[in-house]
Amino acid sequence: MASFSKEFSKGITISNPIFILALGLCPALAISYSLDNALGMSAAVIFVLLGSNIIISAARRIVPNIMRIPTFIVIIATFVTIVTLVFQAYVPNLYQSLGIFLPLIVVNCIILGRAEAFASKNPVISSIADALGIGLGFALALIVISLLREFLGTGGISISLFEQLFNAGSLSFTLPAFSEHPLAIFVLSPGAFLVIGLLMALFRWIGQKKND
Amino acid sequence: MTELISIFVGMALINNFILVKFLGLCPFFGVSKKLSSAVSMGAAVTFVMFIASTATWVITEYILIPFEVEFMKIVIYILVIASLVQIIELFVIRTNYALYNAFGIYLALITTNCAVMGITLLNAQQSYSFPESIVAALGAGIGFTLVLAIMSGIRERLEMSDSPKSMKGLPIAFITAMLLGLAFSGFGGMI
Amino acid sequence: MANMLRKIHPIMFVTLVVLISVTLLVFTETLTSAVLEERRQQQIVDELGNIFPEIDNFVYNEEIEVFTLYAGGVTIGYAFLAIGAGYVGDIAIVVGLEDSETVKGIIIISQQETPGIGDRITGGGFISQFAGLSINAVNFKQDGGQIDGITMATISSKAVIDTVRDTAIEKVKQIEGVE
User: Which residue of C has its CA nearest to A97?
Assistant: First the structure.
């Protein structure tokens, strides 16, 4: 159990995929202009990561060594296609706004990286912990980035994801004076680079403070 | 003809793969420290994009659409790209070893490069014709190389400048990318 | 023999993995495409009243994917979904036809064009130009049609125009084929 929590927490903190390892940056920058996108993308990545980690770790002894990477790629691509089809049917608006970044999870360095570096060498239980930890680390990073971008860029936050799924009401919050003149650059593409650059610097600065 | 030119300019400058579409960021931050390696990487990506677009167009047009199995495209495209990269690598090793030394290490990285997978998915999404797909791939590749080259020039100089300790390396590169992105957004009015 | 087997084994393994993957995906696709189809139809049904306020009944032809609309037992028009690639992603448009030649109105139900630029295609000023046009006049004024494009958003507006016109021409052929 101790090792489970160790594998789990490392993904969120010391090897956070976005801020520390700088992996999986493309979706983190591209779709993080709204909180809805961030939540949807995180759910998709966690599902694929968990599914592929479980299957690959369970099959690790029977996969022929020279066909390792092609096998991993087929397994990951299968899970990505399932996610894409399910999103298309049940959350069409989200499917539309994630665009090609949903199928592009298949080339996300985080997922193949975990398959190769962790799941193909470790038992199922720790691979699940690893997938959940790295997945949540990715999700947290995405949520922080999107909160900042959506709030600064539109002057408010709104979530309509649950409305599409369960017919629940949508949550939204706007800052009255600010939302009339928001800093639109944050929802545009240059703003993504700015927010992630500053957050990375902040993470490092905290790390350096701790070391001193 | 104007259609093709507007696709080319759109892919290379207005919707630049790196700065606007955010595709291919790993090599962008990974190999943009030296101008020479940036240009080699750019050339390798452009070449693979070109070959991959050709191959996936043929497969989509003559297999996926007739048999109505377009939902299989993620699995098929990634397998096609992975095997193409392998074949190109083998071919380059056997025929031109000097070229392999210059491009080889980048080729291995290209399979999981979202720019290559991205262009094939975009071509399919826009249902581009064959010439349109090719022009889109070349435009995207050239735009990618251009930004990679510009960025490496800037980063070579940044190395020598005195930025705050926690900003060194990646964070300052992100801020630089933001400024480049702002500059490129000026192309927006061209079409 | 054993040597041969060792060589073939990896290839057989990957083939098996691909087969399992294909089976799973075909299964998932069958499940989700039914949901998708139902949702698409519902989206069109929701918009019918906005294009044809007098509608009181409709019949859906699954084969050609066209709604035939009635008011008081008389055919008042046809409606169908037109999907085309915009500048960013797909644009989905419900098109209503009065008869086989005239557009009654269009409604854009989903699009991802650039905020503030391309997404102005959903504005009333652009959309209302389609009402009452003959199908062949659905084109830019400079190309012999009757529609003013949107400044700075030529590609997005052209995508709407081309999608509406091309789908309408195709559907009219199919409708006439059925009748």
Answer: C112
